[in-house]
Protein: Uma2 family endonuclease
Amino acid sequence: MTQLEIQIPLETWLPAAWDEFVNLADDPASAKLKGYYYQSRMRFEPMATGADHARVHTIIIASLGLYATLRRIPLNGHDGCSYRKAGRDEFQPDASYYIGDNAEAIPWGTRVVDLDSYPCPNLVIEISDPSLSDDQGAKRLQYEDLRIPEYWIVDVQTTNILAFSVTADGSSRRIRQSQALPGLQLDMLTQALQRSRQETQSATMAWLMAQFQS
Structure:
């Protein structure tokens, strides 16, 4: 157990000053934890995941990379990247993407993305197991407040994908087709996740490639 885990309980939103959160988040003891800060509360989660979470995470990342490649959509993805708006927000989603004109917005050498200097990602994804209720609740509100254009919640247990498009005024609506990656049907990704439970990931990706090219 790390010193950070001794100091605070994990997977719980706790009242905290910004400086207190930053000191904990930047402590080397938190290197294997994901950190969030929203509305003067902090939350830390284990970065280490179970096999189911890891396999779903892999399929999602591979699928989006394949789709963008075949459709020639400029895209750069970040796995477990930290985003910080000083004094107000920090989040560390499972996956996030800069797409189109924003694809090269973040320069090499960036450790924590400063949202006062760089734009928010076009797409943020949380792989939910067992964090589903929080991903649907506080994190969704945070991403809406930050005006992140698109947010997905991938439920590991049901293979369901809840996706939301966020408007400029911060309101959101459910979508079944990605707006950030035009033409991408989320039901197809759901089918890929279901197939991956019965076959190898390489077989699933071969099937998905055929669907994307049809």
Remarks:
- The chain has two domains: 1-48, 50-213.
- The first strand starts at residue 14 and ends at 15.
